[in-house]
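ok so for the tutorial part 2 we go from a plain amino acid sequence to predicted structure tokens. step 1 is just haveing the sequence, like this:
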Amino acid sequence: MAKDVIIKSTHRGLRYEDGRLAGVLEAGRYEVPDARQGRFGRRPVVEIVIVDLRERELTIKGQEILTADKVAIRVSVLTQFQVVEPVAAVEKVVSYEDRLYSDVQLAARRALASMTLEQILTSRNQLSEDILSDVTDAAAGYGVKVLRADVKDLIFPGNLQEIMNRVLTAERVSQIAKRIKDAPPSTKILLDLRDCSIAPASEGLR
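step 2 — the prediction. this is what the tokens look like for a chain of 206 residues:
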């Protein structure tokens, strides 16, 4: 006994006959024949896979990543995407949503690892743009168009002032070391140890 399959205008259907792709179905009503033996021989086994073409959201939550200056932060990324090539979305990967999640996660790691904490705090929009640019081509390979990849949350462990103080101290020590290295042999530079100490949190961000 045949059964009907209805495909909405927001979806497409991939028709498979004995496991082979036979066509992409537009919106409408389609009959799926019974696979039992017919009068003129065995009928092919027909399967219709429905693919949603509407825009959707995917949130990559709480990824802990080290910045370029070795500060551990947790980041959440809100991604908006849409399937634009249903055949590629079904046949190129096992699950395009799982693959997109992994690709955005890796793109966020690469972007954050190339930026310092100060750059992240002052260039949050640039961070989102870098993640989007990184993941766009990869997602296109399995039929998905990434519309947005926005940094939703940035979570800093412990006290932000203490973190910033450590960053500033590391930069100060680096600058002093550079002065010593670049100084002429005839010049004596006294390194004030107070410049290498960690300032109290109340003083570091004045």
